[in-house]
Amino acid sequence: MRLSDFDYDLPPELIAQHPAAQRTSSRLLHVDGRSGELHDRQFGDLVGLLDANDVLIVNDTRVIKARLHGRKDTGGEVEVLVERVLDDRRALAQVRASKTPKAGRTLLLGPHGVKAEVLGRVGEFHELRFDEEVLEVLAREGEVPLPPYITHAAEGDDESRYQTVYARVPGAVAAPTAGLHFDQPLLDALRAKGIAFASVTLHVGAGTFQPVRVDDVSQHVMHSEWYSIPQATVDAIGAARKKNGRVVAVGTTALRALESAAALGEGGLAAGAAETRLFIVPGYRFQVVDRLVTNFHLPRSTLLMLVAAFAGADPIRRAYAHAVAQRYRFFSYGDAMLLDRLRGG
């Protein structure tokens, strides 16, 4: 497979810069795995597209205000994007500055100049040690880390709308965007129909926006992300299977967590926490997820490769061409799709 196999033309004006007025007012493109037909719907129609006894798996990670502006102790300006919180005081971060700060230097971050010592490099990241608890510093001094294709600076509305209504565990630097379309009334309507809910946690890293830099897709190395799957979620999936219900992942992050755990377990899906570098491309054999709710993804991205693996490369090409022609809104604040797993996939 070549990188060009996963390209498509997208008019820039279709990249959503702001969320829809109401979470559930986004559009939903249903790619019917049985008939191959494409159906234009509204996201609220999801209630009628799922069956009683299905189980929805959501990612309950919470986006942290991971972007900090400040200066080095030598005076130069610096921008820090926290990638991962390691413990109360330490974090891995991308650091942008005119000159890369060396170990031992101090950064003064945020409006109040919170001190963070540069401990050294860990791959492409810097390890920083803060004078205060990292999460407290970010909550007080940081900015919402909007994706690079959203051109406006983070505003007050972004703090609530670039966050799912069920976000619980702080640690992500990017939102699990398929979940942004759910509001509480829709969740209540789905539960009233008999659809179960369960959660996983996968802290989405900034690496999700990193481009694939090799033409031979098999040579790409995925970034690492931490996930956790509770026993209650394993049990909920087992209960749905016994009632012939389907496992519906809300977002590629929930899917990657479930499939990563299943790949590790000798007897199928098991509870636990681990790091994953799972790279899903066409030909991958899915073990857990039957249906996927997802947004539209960037050209040549690993997430576009994942959905092509899940629903089939040709159906995804047709769906994306249809979405462009019908002026769907793309990427994090854009519209959504409902995909059925490719038969045999």
Could you explain the architecture of this structure?
The protein is an alpha/beta fold. The protein folds into 2 domains: 3-63 and 158-340, 3-Layer(aba) Sandwich (QueA-like); 67-141, Thrombin, subunit H (Beta Barrel), CATH 2.40.10.240. The protein contains 8 helices and 17 strands. Strands 2-1-17-16-14-3-12-13-15 form a 9-stranded mixed β-sheet, covered by helices on one side. Strands 5-6-7-10-9-8 form a 6-stranded antiparallel beta barrel. A two-stranded parallel ribbon has the order 4-11. It is globular. The chain starts with 26 loop residues before the first strand and ends in a 5-residue tail after the last strand. The model has no long low-confidence stretch (mean pLDDT 95).
What gross morphology would you assign? globular
The amount of beta strand, in percent, is 25-35%
Radius of gyration: 20 Å
Number of helices: 8
Amount of helix? 10-25%
CATH topology of the largest domain: QueA-like
Q: N-to-C SSE series? A: EEHEEEEEEEEHHEHEEHEHEEHHE
Which superfamily, in CATH terms, is the homologous superfamily of the largest domain?
A: QueA-like
How many discrete domains?
2
Class from secondary-structure proportions: alpha/beta
Q: Which class of the largest domain in CATH terms?
A: Alpha Beta
Strands ordered across the widest β-sheet: 2-1-17-16-14-3-12-13-15
How far do the termini sit from each other? 17 Å
Mean pLDDT figure: 95
